[in-house]
Design brief:
Blueprint lengths: L7 H16 L6 H13 L12 H9 L3 H15 L7 H13 L4 H26 L1
Helix pairs in contact: 1-2, 1-3, 1-4, 4-5, 4-6
Length: 132
């Protein structure tokens, strides 16, 4: 959605973060692999190979980025984590770790999560409307 705003390094680091987030509970499922491939296409980094960077390194890479970039990363991360309709403790811990390191208040994180949930609900509603 907003990934085109990231530079090449940020795009690769976001992809690393997205994969980390998807694997926080388990191995990647086929549908999640499809999401990763969609991200690759959207960000024009089709040939990028996931390096499985440590989460501390990924978070540090974004430390010096503008707040707007960090918001994009968190919004897109919520999009990834909420795809299955659940948001468990490990996923919450990951978001909270990023939020803490990037100096976001709890209220900002709640607002981003709510916005992504509302957006996802609108997409579902739109598809249902179209298919009638």
């Amino acid at each position: 959605m907003f990934l085109q705003e990231l530079n090449d390094i940020q795009r690769k680091n976001f992809l690393e973060l997205a994969v980390y987030g998807m694997k926080v509970n388990e191995e990647l499922h086929e549908s999640q692999k499809n999401i990763i491939n969609t991200f690759r296409l959207e960000m024009c980094i089709e040939d990028y190979v996931i390096k499985n960077k440590p989460i501390k390194d990924i978070i540090t890479e974004f430390q010096g980025s503008k707040k707007s970039i960090k918001k994009i990363v968190l919004i897109e991360l919520f999009g990834v984590l909420l795809t299955d309709g659940a948001f468990d403790d490990k996923e919450s811990d990951l978001v909270n770790l990023c939020a803490k390191k990037w100096n976001f208040r709890d209220s900002e994180i709640k607002k981003m999560r709510r916005w992504v949930q509302d957006f996802n609900d609108l997409l579902v509603e739109g598809y249902e409307y179209i298919m009638k």
